[in-house]
User: Fold this.
Amino acid sequence: MFRATFLQRFVLAGTLLAVAVAKNSGSSDQEDAMFSSVSIPIQHSFQTGSDAEFRERGFLSFKSLSQGRGSYRQTVDLSTDDSNLLKELALEGGLYRARVPTQLLSLQYSDDIGYVSSYVKACSLLESNMSDDITIHADQSGHVLGISILPSRGTCTKSSEEILAMEVLFFNTTVSLSLTVSGPVPETQAYLDKLEEEKMQKTANGQDNRSFFAKYWMYIVPVVLFLMISGGQGEQRGGGS
Assistant:
């Protein structure tokens, strides 16, 4: 009876321990996924001029801060007014503009944060059926250096009537992240340290492996020159007498 009770308690304790470990492991995986994912808001404007108003368009998301493909989630549907503004821009030859914050890893974005922006012809975006390719250019620390927008079609060939008749409902966006790669840095300090170490070793040993001439050339050369000059003068005197 005692043995059966002990075994039951042992099995129960082992089961509870396994459940606790699995729960903690799942929580850790969720936390890793949360911290490894990167999301950045994107805004756009259908207005021209330096005082153009930017409004929310959606979010660009990446699984991690590494170079590769991401995803786009549109959070605000294009209204009838937005559609009309975009068509007016297209008819006027205007530019559609979009911008993103300058930090990928910021947990909170405010109105006074810096932005980087890009633009395309509104007519090319319309004639691409709102299909565009957005690339975020950033460095290794998550600082956004720029944004590029490339519509699937780069030309504007439709007439005014065709543009006005187009339906503008939502964006079909492809997203990618491009990180700058640091170039090789010369190890200047390591080289200087090596030279200093060799110099200290020579000083400590007190040995000089240079040849006799290399050590005392500054004394030998003047003596040789003096002898050559003296010999030449002696020959001249002998010839003159």
Notes: The chain is about 45% helix and 25% strand. Helices lie at 2-36, 80-92, 122-127, 160-164, 188-205, 212-240. Confidence is low (pLDDT under 50) at residues 1-35. Residues 36 and 64 are 5 Å apart (CA to CA).
